[in-house]
Amino acid sequence: MAASATEPDDVLDYIAARLVNGRLTGRPVEDAIDLARIEKAVREILIAVGENPDRDGLQQTPARVARAYAELFAGLRVDPATVLTTTFEANHEELVLVRDIDVMSLCEHHLLPFRGSAHIGYIPGPDGRITGLSKLARLVEVFARRPQVQERLTVQIADLLMERLSPRGVVVVLECEHMCMAMRGIQKSGAKTITSAVRGTLQRDAKSRAEAMALIIPR
Ligand SMILES: Nc1nc2c(ncn2[C@@H]2O[C@H](COP(=O)(O)OP(=O)(O)OP(=O)(O)O)[C@@H](O)[C@H]2O)c(=O)[nH]1
Ligand SMILES: [Zn+2]
User: For a Cys-Cys bond, which of 46, 107, 108, 168 suits 123, CB 3.0-4.6 Å?
Assistant: First the structure.
């Protein structure tokens, strides 16, 4: 996927400069998103719910929401492949697993947050090439900052790792709580949705898959 309004490298640099501990901070990619249009829409929403968008506390709200959305959806303008450009030769042929990567995204059905953890493991390919551990967290970030469903987010991470790193196998597990199930609708808080995507030898070989899963979700 190419960035539409800005070159992918520019946007990635922009985001990378604002990533602290794998999370975006500071000003977002404002120039790549139609802030004025969001502002207009948010003002309409405030009127529609019976609020007065001109009262003191709400005057700046449409502009704030527009900036917040630019941050929350910044991943739409980043080519995820650019995250995995650095790889190292390590001759490591065993499982590499990063557990408990913080995930925050917005469900595409209600635009309400879902959050939890991602666990990402891979077995390097015959060339033994590995990637920087932080790149796995950056990958989560790029795909999470889009309107999402948890299933797609899980699959996108796994497929991109397979494509860019050519590993023997990949396992991605996400455990998240969805605010659209907690704050509204069925109103069940605490329910966790677990999704997984398994590729390559980890998909084919039940024993190595079970070993990886045991490390991801210890009993
Ligand atoms: N599979 C999946 N479903 C999701 C995700 N996020 C939200 N949902 C669900 O999307 C569904 C949308 O269902 P609809 O019946 O169209 O919308 P709704 O009337 O607001 O549904 P309720 O939440 O049941 O009130 C709901 O069941 C949500 O729980 C996700 O990441 N994956
Ligand atoms: Zn939802």
Answer: 168
DSSP string, the chain: ---SSS-HHHHHHHHHHTEETTEE-SS--GGGS-HHHHHHHHHHHHHHTT--TTSGGGTTHHHHHHHHHHHHTGGGGS-GGGGG--EEE----S-EEEEEEEEEEEETTT--EEEEEEEEEEE--TT-EEE-HHHHHHHHHHHHSSEE-HHHHHHHHHHHHHHHH--SEEEEEEEEEEHHHHTSTT--TT--EEEEEEEEHHHH-HHHHHHHHHHHS--
For the segment 103-133, what is each residue's pLDDT rounded down to a tens digit?
Answer: 999 999 999 999 999 999 999 999 888 999 9
pTM of the model: 0.86
ipTM of the complex: 0.92
- Give domain 85-216's CATH number out of 3.20.20.70, 3.20.20.120, 3.30.450.40, 3.30.1130.10: 3.30.1130.10
- How remote is the CA of residue 109 from the centroid of ligand 1, in Å? 6
Mutate to test the pocket of ligand 1, among 104, 157, 180 (most ligand atoms within 8 A of CB): 180
